[in-house]
Amino acid sequence: MAPLARNVLVTGSNRGIGLELVRQLVEGPDPPEHIFATYRDLDGARGKALQELAAKYPPVRLIQLDAVSLASVRAAVKEVDSQLNGKGLNLLINNAAVNSYATLQSVQPEEMISVFTTNVVGPIQVAKEFLPLLKRAAEEAGKEGLSCSKAAIINMSTKVGSIELCFQVLEIPMYPYRASKAALNMVTRCLAAELKDAGILCTAIHPGWVKTDMGTEKAPLTVECSVQGILSVLAGLSQATTGVFLDWEGKSLPW
Ligand code: NDP
């Protein structure tokens, strides 16, 4: 079995879905050559599991990256570039995000801006700065078509960001979070349209409602199950599924 992708980067890898993506990628039957697992801060309990994974598996490379800081993203690109030693980055997973439950009554402008900064400005900035490494991977592959093994950007979205579904707004208003993920969906469509000819796929994935710090214990899905689904969906992506919105089981969601 070929690896999903030779060189992968996952943002927000110290906990939750990001950590499990790194774990399943490295413990899978054919692990990538490099898995750049990015974190903001490894101190304390939040960094322990990722540090243990990196100590056990040489392909896991720890890279500091705060998606909202351009200086931090650029330093991460430099470090990844040097570790790739002339090779390209095949798969970029924009997983890092923050949540906000603010209602119409409680929402503050500062919170709207702060969530937007992390969930929209962050991923677009990460995609923009890593683009030369993704283009290098696409050129190296030289084959027709689009896939995660060639070059791809995956944006972690959510069903509650779907404008068409407008899912459970009265029960879970989440104005800042929903608006930010709807904007991220538009970014995904734009990137897919713009980068297709460069050989780079771009798709939005909803991981399900998952038991993590963000999803809480009430969530029905375990992180293991969600990530198993996500990885199998990623393996099947192609030219036909660039610029689409899929859930962790591969079902299509409306924008
Ligand atoms: P968690 O809250 O468990 O983890 C979020 C991760 O993002 C942490 O590693 C956090 O790092 C990181 N992060 C936050 N801000 C930044 C930043 N500025 N720069 C870099 N890293 C940052 O979330 P989940 O694992 O549950 O969610 C992962 C993705 O899946 C998100 O995009 C989320 O929106 C999406 N999603 C999750 C659902 C769920 O039910 N869990 C449902 C639908 C979508 P740190 O530890 O430093 O804070």
From TrEMBL:
Cellular component terms per the entry's GO annotation: cytoplasm
UniProt GO molecular function: oxidoreductase activity
Stated family: Belongs to the short-chain dehydrogenases/reductases (SDR) family.
SUPFAM superfamilies (UniProt xref): NAD(P)-binding Rossmann-fold domains
Any Pfam family: adh_short
Protein name: C-factor-like
Position of the signal peptide: none
Species classification: Eukaryota, Metazoa, Chordata, Craniata, Vertebrata
